[in-house]
Amino acid sequence: MSDITTTGFANVEQTVLGADELIINMGPQHPSTHGVLRVRLKLDGEKIVGSECIIGYLHRGVEKIAEHRSYQQFAPYVDRMDYVAAVSNGLGYCEAVEKLMSVEAPPRARVIRTILTELQRIASHLVWLGTHALDIGALTPIFYCFREREEILKIFEKYCGARLTTHAFRIGGLQYEAYDTLEHDVERFCKDFATKVDEYETLLSENRIWVGRTKNIGVLTAEQAIALGVSGPVIRASGVKWDLRKATPYAAYDQYQFEIPTGKNGDTYDRYMVRMEEMRQSAKICLQAIQNIPTGPIMARIGKVLKPPPGEVYHAIEAPKGELGYYIVSDGTTQPYRVRIRPPSFINLQAFDAMVKGHLVADVVAIIGTLDIVLGEVDR
Amino acid sequence: MANDSEEKQPPKTPPDAPASKDEAGISASQTDSGSKHSDPTVPQSVVPADAESRRVAAKETGASDVGAVPHGAEDTARPAAEAQAKQTAAEAAKTSGVPPKPAAPAADAAPKPAEPAAAPPKPAAPAGDPPKPAAPAAAGAVPPKPAAPSAPAAAKPAAPTGAAVPPRPAAPKEAPPKPEPLDNPLVQRFKKRFGAAIREAWIDRKQAILVVDAAQLEEITLYARDEEKFNYLADLTAVDWPHREKRFDLIMILYSFEKNERLRIKAHVGEGELVASVTNVWPVANWLEREAFDMFGILFSGHPELKRILLPDEWQGFPLRKEYDILTQDTAWIRENLGIESGQ
Asked: How far apart are CA B177 and CA A352, in angstroms?
């Protein structure tokens, strides 16, 4: 036994019980890993003393594919990274290429993009909430969450025909005009969505089991969070008030009022609260946006063949999971020379080891859930 | 949208007037001169060749968009059409004093500005200046500026010079976004501190880039983190320029919460060369450096456990290198581990 335990782990402290360590393999086919994440846990009794994430099971070489496709051809691929938030991925990519070409989408397109992206944020958080609660043992929320998510997917379907991997945006703007009742649908959904969030909260926020399973679990201090490069709700729950929608506004976010919720303790409960509040804020943004959708064209005047001038650009957006960045190098041809995707899930997952040490095995699923990873994006 | 399709399509007839020939010449030379911006240090001759080979490779692999012939044709056709449009517009303006009613193509966009008989060929002026020619691509609902009329004419600056010979084929709407040397206080502070180790400083699309000596990477990043407050490493990655002496660009994208600013640090790294790991500066670099190793084979010294992260540990080859074709795979590994002949 002891010879097994000494392999494969860096920086593991000596355990109290010495030889009674145990290595447990979790995944890649484990329901609570949200995909194909494999975790090797080193245990002392039931306490975790070390961990290692083994990823890459879903690696498709997206960045390599990008170099062999034209700029437009690559756009649908990005939807397949974070497949529960495809719209956000598309927004980041389209805006990055637009920046590379120094064009801007027309105002109407930007507002419609903002609406759809915020709906997508809500949908993504709803998937997170449902599955996270399910992992911890609360069976009910997932039914409510998917009920509301369905409404959002219906809006996407009406808008562009697809529900999941939408390819909703195009470089330069939008392909489709908003359908006639978009504003009405969005308004109807967002108006009473805040009360729905309250409903979820009555199920969880003061539930003794929920609180017991999430408070002080997987704590990240602000310093740790910055050093580990986490982003999105994870860093905000640690008290860093940083949201790219405010810090470096893109799309039409500079026109709307909204709050950036932050937490204090950086534990699983705070991350839960931050995301809950973010959903309310997203609904608020949508309601503001539909009040005034500018008229005009929805597509900037760009050619059918895109040849961005040589150079490079980094553009990051606040995806539901965190900072989603695209670093694109152009050599002046129709295909990108290099596309680097900064995946929030990948980098957030790296913090897993720091968060899980010292906790019990049962907390592992809570911590994986609270990081809100999507393996399609981790592995790309 | 209809409006982006028509403008370069019209002269589908290939040998279109003398103009198109001129333009062909221009655009050809353009690719050359343009490419030198792609990376300041790349020998000029290198990139076009590379680009060409990529095109060929793409064709072979079936990435069909760049079929050589139609592509080339489009290329030449487009500037020609533009030039013509511009010329007619300019002439019209001259003779009538009426704002250039943009020639046939591109007409549909936006409200055709009927009112502004006011200012004559003003559009020429703003077009010249790079920074922010208010003409926000055709968006022009009702910009009071006379620049408006030029909006449909394409937001392509109505280059008054009759499209003389200034190159640049693809709709240079705004400032030609070529990297320019950057010399702001931040760069000066870096230079003062590290002297020649700060090799170059560029600004590209309003983003600051610092090219530094790989040997001093750790000191420079520490300084950037502690003194300049770029305390957040957003990303670390690499780009392969196989024809360069030191083929890799190691790229770090830093962010400062305090200044709300980004800074990109680049270092040239040769194949097989050891470069200092920045995991001690930013722990987040751990996985990012592993990925750079996995995909490019860049070696980091001082990394706690430099091994593959996305690909299997025993995999041979580094997929994001340029010579690694998109269909390449480690067949031995696949045969051994998956029991099949090909993973494609």
From this structure: 40
Mean predicted confidence (pLDDT) in B298-306 = 89
pLDDT of residue B210: 86
Nearest-CA residue of chain B relative to A54? B309
Q: Which residue has better confidence, A177 or B16?
A: A177
On whether the CB atoms of residues B75 and B235 are closer than 8 A, the answer is: no
A324 → chain B, closest CA residue: B234
Point out the residue among B7, B305, B319 whose CB comes nearest to the CB of A10.
Answer: B305
- What pTM does this model have? 0.70
Check A303 against B78: CB less than 8 A apart: yes
How large is the ipTM? 0.85
**Site from A64, A305, A312, A342 to mutate, B interface, most B CB atoms within 10 angstroms:** A312
- Nearest-CB residue to A59 (from B47, B174, B310): B310
| Residue B269 DSSP SS3 | strand
> How far is the C-alpha of B135 from the C-alpha of B76, rounded, in Å?
25
For chain A, the average pLDDT equals 87
pLDDT at B162: 39
Q: Range with the lowest mean pLDDT among A178-187, A214-223, B101-110, B186-195?
A: B101-110
B4 and A64 in contact by Cβ < 8 A?
no
In angstroms, the separation between the Cα of residue B91 and the nearest Cα of chain A is 23
Beta carbons within 8 Å of B235's beta carbon, 6+ residues apart: A314, A325, A327, A340, A342, B251, B252, B253, B288
Choose among B35, B173, B319: nearest Cβ to A64: B319
